[in-house]
Amino acid sequence: MNTLTQEQLFALANELDADMVGSCELPFSPIPELPNLKYALSVGVKLSDAVLKTIESAPSFVYFQHYRTANTRLDQIAFTLAREIEKAGFLAMPIAASQSLGKNNPYNGVLPHKTAAVLSGLGFVGKSGLFLSKDYGSKVRLATVLTDMPLTSVYPVIENGCGNCTACQTACPAGAIYGALPTADGERNFDAEKCSRYMKEHFQDIGRGSVCGICIKVCPKNKLN
Ligand code: SF4
Ligand code: SF4
Predict the structure, then answer these.
(1) Which has more confidence, 208 or 85?
(2) Is the pTM of this model over 0.85?
(3) Which atom of ligand 1 has the smallest separation from the CA of 214?
(4) Is 132 within 8 Å of 126 (Cβ atoms)?
(5) What is the pLDDT of residue 186?
(6) Positive or negative, the Cα torsion across 161, 165, 166, 172?
(7) Element spanning 143, H or E
(8) Which of 63, 75, 104, 163 is deepest in the core (most CB within 10 A)?
(9) What pLDDT sits at residue 187?
(10) How far is the CA of 164 from the centre of ligand 1 (A)?
(11) Distance CA 6, CA 20 (A)
């Protein structure tokens, strides 16, 4: 059995080309059958500025392809990190970048990646409902590894930094963003069903109705190059 430290895990995530890595202890395991899986490693990759610039009033084909590639990249990073943790004798479960609990619960996954990322001090949840990284804004994709390997948070939790901005609410063609800060009880500040319905009705031919990107493109925290 290998020995493995949190620092080595962070270094491996960086070697695997993650742009962000953090860790935290969750209030409880999101997997009822595995209550000790209450530690999370949060990883993120930054999306391309050039690709985001191709989004106007609709997503672009290059954005759709880039989004899927970023998810694949993240899944590989989380998969490798989970394998290393299990080689060290712990349990580890990679949670896919794009997750759903099926037809009966399409807008939720095992856990929101943004919950782990926020508790890891990597950023905050904006009025758009998106996770905003302290370094890259919302132009990031996330994945998570759940584990029973004790991990601690190394960065302080960051407060919401949207201020008076409502750019995402104004730009959203579906009217799905309420323009409110996320509440502490985790209640959604946007209507996921409205967002999804709009994408399916209007962007079927571009991103198979599963991507949009407008609220990412307009966010001033992204500072596109
Ligand atoms: S992805 Fe598009 S439709 Fe959905 S909330 Fe963002 S701007 Fe609105
Ligand atoms: S567009 Fe403005 S309000 Fe929306 S998430 Fe970005 S900073 Fe926050």
Answers:
(1) 85
(2) yes
(3) 7
(4) yes
(5) 54
(6) negative
(7) strand 140-147
(8) 63
(9) 63
(10) 19
(11) 14
* DSSP secondary structure letters along 39-65: EEEEEEEEPPHHHHTT-SSS--HHHHH
Residues of the chain with pLDDT > 70, as a percent, come to 97
Q: How far is the CA of 177 from the centre of ligand 1 (A)?
A: 8
Q: Residue 6: name the closest of 69, 81, 68, 91 by CA.
A: 81
Q: Considering every ligand atom, which ligand is closest to the CA of 196?
A: 1
Which atom of ligand 1 sits closest to the CA of residue 216? 6
d(CA 185, CA 197) in angstroms, rounded, equals 25
Nearest CA to ligand 2 atom 2: 165
Site of tokens 């580890």: 92
Q: Is the CB of 215 under 6 A from ligand 1?
A: yes
Q: What is the pLDDT at residue 217?
A: 94
Show the tokens assigned to 44.
């993120």
Q: Is the CB of 214 under 6 A from ligand 1?
A: yes
Ligand 1: centre distance to CA 180 (Å): 15
CA separation, residue 25 to residues 116, 142, 148, 163 (Å)? 8, 17, 10, 28
Residue of 40, 37, 64 whose CA lies nearest to 52: 64
pLDDT of residue 149: 98
Place of tokens 């989970």: 82
